[in-house]
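okkk here we go again. third time trying to get the nicotinamide-adenine-dinucleotide bound version out, last two times i messed up the smiles copy paste (missing a bracket lol). double checked this time i swear
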Amino acid sequence: MGRKFLPLMGGMEIKDQVILVTGGARGLGFAMLAAFGERGGRLVVCDRAGSAAAAETLRAQGYDATGIDCNVTEESSVVSAFEQIAAQVGPVNIAILNAGILRDGLLIRFNKATGKIKGKMSLEQWQSVIDVNLTGVFLTGREAAAQMAEAGGGLIIPISSVAMHGNPGQSNYSAAKAGVAALTRLWAQELSRFKIRVCGIAPGFIATEMVLKDMNAKALEEWQSRIPIGRLGRPDEIAHTAVFIAENDLMTGVVVEASGGIKI
Ligand SMILES: NC(=O)c1ccc[n+]([C@@H]2O[C@H](COP(=O)([O-])OP(=O)(O)OC[C@H]3O[C@@H](n4cnc5c(N)ncnc54)[C@H](O)[C@@H]3O)[C@@H](O)[C@H]2O)c1
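finally!!
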């Protein structure tokens, strides 16, 4: 006799929901859009450039998709993007706050031969990552929450990273991602009275352009040898995590680590 699995009762139905993904033109963002599109979601790509082209690609795959360019570091750009989405598609039901950049470097670099400091992480290097990865999440999370509160509820999925635990060579990135994890936990409490869930994802090392091109190749090889499952993660595995969070109303106030077991 075959086993029977009961369907999840009362979980969020993805079909016909408006799903916004920042940084959705490629990488994890694009994979998450496709996964939600597969389940009948109405997709909104919000990237700093190329949003319309990415939406076109998604439409060619049979999904309902709209592209609206948005620079998450600029308040006016974010506010205007949310206004356009509400007018063109409808209020956002699920917002995945995924736009992010890397600008790795050590806090200080030391020249052993001279005994002198030969370099420092610049303020610009620090600020550029904080602007996109933390301020960008604040601005887009704030606008998403405002729209969802007026519409009677929703779900925010901020994308953190296992680097939130503190990864050497990533002062800027780790600080931003730890901030994103803190916002996830506190927003879940602040926003529960509006029926808004907030549940984050902290990916480990996933095979996207950010990791394959922007990360130092030697550092990546070293990290890869330390991943217990023995390989990089795949974007569809992170997309599946986002779908799981969406469909399960119990998921709020936590950051789910999807990392193949890597410890930082
Ligand atoms: N790939 C990984 O291993 C990994 C691991 C942990 C966390 N993450 C996080 O996942 C998210 C996506 O990463 P990815 O690997 O897909 O990176 P990616 O570089 O492939 O994609 C990032 C996207 O963000 C967009 N973006 C950058 N700055 C922006 C801005 N100011 N406004 C709007 N969009 C902007 C880019 O144009 C790009 O499309 C990031 O937040 C990243 O920190 C990735």
